[in-house]
Task: structure prediction
Amino acid sequence: MTRPNEVSASVSWKSPSNLAIVKYWGKQGYQEPLNPSISFSLDKSFTQTTITTKPSDDGGFTFLLDGQKKENFDSKIEQFLNKARPFFPFLKNHHLVIESHNSFPHSSGIASSASAMSALAQCLVSLHQLSQGKSLNNIDKIMVSGVARLGSGSACRSVYGGWSLWGKTPAIANSSNMYAIALENNIHPVFHTLQDTILLVDPTPKKVSSSQGHQLMENHPYRKARIKQANENTEKLLQILASGNVHSFLNLAENEALSLHGLMMSSTPSYTLLHPNTISLMAIIQEKRQKEGWPVGFSLDAGPNIHLLHPASHQQLIVEWIDKDLKAFCHQGNIIYDNLGQGPELIKI
Ligand code: PMV
Result:
């Protein structure tokens, strides 16, 4: 006899990482952001996750990364599933086999938690819909985003292709702290061609995690000023994205990246994740834009690696320049050529 919510199925989703231009830094409540953030989804940097359900009263899971058990991830997944349980009655009477694969190396300066948690959330919402006898033609993206947020804040923006916004802002009527929304309108075509070339300066794991960094915002002396700055930058970026002004975009991206690292440097305890080569690269990139007018700039995630941003139009010239002037600053010459992507993809049911 089939029990309520029973679903014997296997679903696979491919979900991208994303790069924030206006940065989320600091939390309130449970995984709600201190300020709005705006990001775009990447194309080549993704996690592919398959969840296979088996009816069982243990309500547990087995996690495999690249076919291997990775026990150090188990507690993070367990914490996430425990937060998600109230939304997914089927979890109670199934065992999940979760198999994941990342398209990019670990500690490569790409947010793997964003792609991993958004892929997991896509699978869970799909299984939930199947357990309720609904088709997967219409995935409830707001639900996926809200659930992904429980695993990692930035993951809630990875559930869409192109640009997305997370966090309440008066500039966008349906914005929310609980989930991200897609920014589909008012994006100039040039910002759909954005390239993100990741210059891997230092692949060693970060000495201070993003979770610790978020926590340090609680008593941060610049907390109020940061919230104001991020809100203003959100409104400015929305206007810039609509206008197509690439130079204003790059100036704002750099201002946000440096502000994020400035907040780390002025936390108590203070720390920096920047590497001497990060500083050298930032100076070379800014000079190229300011002195020669090239449409190139940088962003940084919570790490030393440079995200070189530019529209597709100058691609050939920029690739030659990277080889000649920038590659030498990268760890073993490591570079990932990524770009704005189309968002999560259902691989199989
Ligand atoms: O989602 P978390 O908790 O890993 O935080 C990510 C924070 C930044 O990547 C630094 C900024 C952002 O908005 O993605």
User: Anything to note?
Assistant: The two ends are 23 Å apart (CA to CA). The chain has a mean pLDDT of 95. The longest helix spans residues 223-243.
